[in-house]
Amino acid sequence: MIEVRSLTRRYGSVVAVDELTFDVAPGVVTAFLGRNGAGKSTTLRMLLGLDRPTGGTARVDGRAYADLPAPLHAVGALLDSSAPHPGRTGRDHLRWLAASNRIPSRRVADVLRLVDLSADAGRRVRGYSLGMRQRLGIAAALLGDPPVLLLDEPTNGLDPEGIRWLRGFLRDLAAEGRTVVVSSHLMGEVGLTADHLLVVGRGRLLADMPLAEFVAGQGGPRLRVRTPEPERLAGVLRATGAEVDLAGGALAVGGIAERRLGEVAARHGIPLLELRRDGARSLEDAFLALTAPVPTAAPREEVARP
Ligand SMILES: Nc1ncnc2c1ncn2[C@@H]1O[C@H](COP(=O)(O)OP(=O)(O)OP(=O)(O)O)[C@@H](O)[C@H]1O
């Protein structure tokens, strides 16, 4: 469980984090989303005792990080700054971390296996790809078997297969009852597979809600359809009450399920060349609209909560 109350961090005249208040529950994946510079890393650093709040509190299991008796057993973190020494092997890096935190060295083999890095553990980190470094960082975060995991932009450097692996991995960790927070500046990378969203913009909380609610707020997914008869299909779909935009020969359709759309087209003898959900795209658009820079500060009452 994470509790953040009125958390604020100023750097001179820059307000990096502005009166943030939220809780993060265990057992689900929470995406911490915001554009570059929104204050995500600063918030995570304060949760980890690496930066001092100007005001407010950030607690893990009821305590400030500095007061945790065994921090690595309480919180695992992946931050850019925790880069391993390039001349060490992945295994040695983890052994060194384990030894300096009184964690039995047999745990090293376990976490290497968990992140699928056993085969490369004997290689020096300088030869690792970005994706392998991220896996090593995640292995380090898991060393103390912590109930809370904070991962800052863990998809950096991962290819699409690596991102898919990470999504499944995070879900499994949450299913074990852990509190999993993963930050990203892109909605699509983790937000779409998270259970809960925390969205920040210019240091302030813009949304704190289940993903399902965010999706519902956007009117459900849009469908993308291609047909040799776009005008005619648009006409029959509009007659059912669906919203249709015609763009470059393709149709973007809202307010109708895929199956029903297929049935309507078949009934009118209109062939479909393509029919797919365009959900990711419209949600990324909604995320960008929500976090769009505004010339004046938004009033605090605008925080969207369930
Ligand atoms: N040590 C620092 N000194 C001065 N300003 C800082 C410092 N750290 C962060 N900032 C400023 O605070 C704001 C928030 O930065 P932060 O790194 O927390 O954002 P972020 O959401 O993590 O962004 P990104 O997605 O780019 O990592 C930015 O304006 C940044 O320039």
TrEMBL record:
Residues forming coiled coils: none
SMART domains referenced in this protein's UniProt entry, alphabetically: AAA (SM00382)
Pfam families: ABC_tran
GO molecular function: ATP binding; ATP hydrolysis activity
Residues in ABC transporter domain copies: 2-227
Alphabetic keyword roster: ATP-binding, Nucleotide-binding, Transport
Stored InterPro entries: AAA+_ATPase, ABC_transporter-like_ATP-bd, ABC_transporter-like_CS, P-loop_NTPase
Family as reported in the entry's similarity comment: Belongs to the ABC transporter superfamily.
The name this protein goes by in its record: ABC-2 type transport system ATP-binding protein
Organism: Geodermatophilus tzadiensis
